[in-house]
């Protein structure tokens, strides 16, 4: 708003020699009361006003006289480029109604009259008014203003949103009735003439913070204004914050009273929360864990692995700071994204659990005892119940045995060593109900020269050193019962002939005796040899073979009925617990898996030996994979050590996945062992060489049972 914008450019230009008449004529033409007297180059000489000309005429001058005497030379001037406010001040202090406007070269360019000033200020006030209205309208806060009659004169869009009332309904109306929520306070600001402290007000759909102030003009209160800030969103956030804080406090309390150790990591793999129980287990201060990388500080928990793999896992029992712990890990998923992981470490209850397991075991033992007693007592229960199996071939064999036992026929039982042939023989005897004894002769164990007297006994003085009064042989001892001829394939040919005679005639003589004795003996023979081959080789009499092979039972090897492994393990562990006075609970799945892949050349007897060895060597309550002998641990299919297995042989292996997995696992174990040895047992270096994280290395060491001890042993 500069002078040049508002000055009157069409002004009256006069020369000193102009007459009064011509001056009046110009004043009339321009409708102005003032004229500028100029030199030829537009420089100011002075001014002439209508009043000065009137004064000349009143003093008797004629209209034709020059205007010179009426000229004022002391003229108030203003530069054209200054603001109007400055020009206004100049006019007010000089107490004149006009000022001559000059350019930079001091030439006259216009006249500034009071009317120009008024117009300028009216325009400026209108502009300001528009600005204030726009500002109020677009404020985020609601603004309500009243005049001193309490009528609402300002009501912006934010107020409309807050009070839910259209402007046309409230503008001009009394604030007390139209906006009662603020009516009292805004009128009090008006009446008391001072601002009011901020106050929360509750509207039907919002909460706002209101401030009130009086509006004054020239020391007079002409109204009041209320500014209201909508707090609804802030209140919501605050409430959410409070809820979050409450939840956090609840979580913290829950963690603290938790009996187990708990550690939580965020998506960066850093520890965000640990409870006192965990600190107690690790014997560490909270600030030494918080915000640290979990893999460095708590590698045993495998939290980073859980975060990476999304896997929820319960581990086997493992040791932390010398205490056995059971660790459960769970990833924390939010909106389908992994945002952390949580580990629960159970370390206190394990001792109680152990007691529970033992108690359970005792109860199971008792149950087994009563169950077997019940079976024995009930009519259906037979000695066959002691032959444990889940295999259909074995089940049908048990049925055949039951039927065969009812007859008097000779039974031949064949099968690999340790498959349970003797158990079947005993079952035959028990089921047959024969009153005599079950007598066993191991044909392979007795020297051939003693075999005859073992079988038939000898008479008094039959040979030097013979017992006085003679001695009965196994045939006589088994009279009325069952004679079990184990390893019959190993019986010398000479004795085979005598045996054949006894079987045919049911009579014999003691060695060195002439007296023929008659016996009632049930023969059950067993062998792990192929008798047909022995016949071909002339080592076994064909006629004897047909004589004993009346009923033939073939017991399948253990490797053909691997489904029997779990029940057999269970049965044998219980049996061995009683014998060895142990409290072993059972076989771990990992160990069982290894057993499944083994060929078991020694069958159930070998299994029993393996379990007995494990139970004797270890004080643990479970038979773990590392308790098994080396031949079972290293790949057990008779293959060379896995890591050296040529690729073509690996490919040629049957598509038995478990088998192949073992070979790969053994190769990995071998590699990890060698790298660890090379690094002198340093886990960090070894993990680096292997290109895996330290926690993964720890995990694999646990999986393959690589301990400090095994590292040194391997060296
Ligand atoms: N199905 C089974 N259930 C329970 N125990 C079994 C079973 N099979 C074998 N056994 C146990 O395995 C061991 C070996 O069994 P057994 O002596 O009967 O085998 P075998 O075939 O007669 O052996 P060998 O040919 O060497 O004389 C025994 O302790 C037996 O009790």
Number of strand segments: 27
Please report the distance between the alpha carbons of the first and last residues.
98 Å
Kindly state the mean pLDDT as a whole number?
85
Instruction: Evaluate the radius of gyration.
Output: 59 Å
Assign the CATH architecture of the largest domain. Answer: 3-Layer(aba) Sandwich
> Which topology of the largest domain does CATH recognise?
Rossmann fold
The CATH C-level name of the largest domain is: Alpha Beta
Uncertain runs:
635-644
Strand order of the largest sheet: 8-7-11-10-9
Shape: rod-shaped
Q: Which structural class do you get from the secondary structure elements?
A: alpha/beta
Count of helix runs: 30
Proportion of β residues? 15-25%
